[in-house]
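Notes taken during the Thursday session

The instructor put the following on the board and asked us to keep it in front of us for the whole hour. The protein is Inhibitor of the pro-sigma K processing machinery. We were told not to look anything up and to reason only from what is written here. First, the residues (87 in total):
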Amino acid sequence: MKLIMLIMLIVSAISLLYVLLRQRGAWQVAMTFCLHGVMAFVLLYLVNSTGWLAGIQVATNASTLVTVGVLGIPGLALLVALQTYLI
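Then, after some discussion, the predicted structure tokens were revealed:
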């Protein structure tokens, strides 16, 4: 079973590299996605490092990174509001 998963991972990685190298637009989309992910992590880090004064702390995990990466600052505000009022 592990061998099948490893083979699927290798084939998927090679296919992704092929698509990224063949089409310039796909490379640009991938880089934009990575940049948004990095910016989301930086925003979450800033909120977590400075938010302890006000008692605001948002967990840094895949779902919060995707939310902030896709929605940006409004997504971060949404997570802070959910954390403050619902949890």
